[in-house]
Amino acid sequence: MRDLYEVLEVSRTASADEIKKAYRKLARKHHPDANPDDPKAEERFKEISAAHDTLSDPDKRKAYDQFGASGGTGAQGFDPNDFRDFAQDRGFDISDLFGDLFGRRRGGGPSAGRGRRPARRGVDLETRVTLSFDDALRGARVTVPVDKDVNCADCSGTGAAAGTSRTTCPDCGGSGERQVNQGFFAIAEACMRCGGQGSIVEKPCATCKGSGRQRRTKRYTVKIPAGIADGARIRVRGKGLDGESGGSPGDLWVVVQVLPSERFVRRGKDIIVEVPVTFPEAALGAEIDVPTPLGEKVRVKVPAGSVDGKMLRVRGLGAPSTSGDDGSLLVRLKLIVPTGLSTQQTEALEKFAALDGGTDPRAELFS
Known about the structure:
four-stranded mixed sheet
């Protein structure tokens, strides 16, 4: 049996997030629907899913690291009573701990696993949508096209031609598995003839050629909430790939890309706008009109003695928030130095300089 970390192509010290990302990447790559001409795709996909089921659960992962085929003490010299106590202490049945890895109990009962493949949730999908800066602030409804494999309409996903149905696999008797003894454990491997499904198609559906799936472009309308940030992910439940054997469908994740604005810059929930002010306005103080992100104007008071780069805050005019705590509009003052002065302007500034008393603003640099 392959090491589970090797199956997911991660190190034994991989974080839960790294394991999740590796599973998603491999699941998309090896999903049977994405490899209709590869008879071994289903077996690889099941191996990847089984590895993820164990390593994504902290207790199962700890047990695998301690007792698994490649981790901890391994199977040799293994005391089953220790293993049973370890499982019971954590509140789950030993038969469920490594279900797909070490096989199911033989004989009748709910753990026999015969007759059909267990239900499996569909794989999540991801797509991207690009919004303007304004639409991201206001919120929008967008139509997202998604190319995906869906259950064949002619055979309802069975893969069997009209008027026929799947039949029990004669090699595995419908279990979808064959048992291979490995010392203490009996390891269940997928049946080669039916690919682990427990049933076969004798007369394939002409539309999907027995795969049970068709490639289709689905279009979904997605509501983008006002104030959404660049890189945010929106979850659309049930719009991923269809599940297997009656399993629930996966989800669709919409990643939002927000285009930059020529005038505004977003910083968290706050929005910054740079506004020019004249020397008299900065020195004497003034009230000026400032544009808001939603296309309106707001009157802002510039305090006397304001310097270049001074930031003024207008609360509630930043990015909208679903919690009601909207961000602020931050007004950065940009002092404009006049050029092309007239004679009168030059004389006025010279008089101002004379009245300033000859103060040297750079004196501290040489103290």
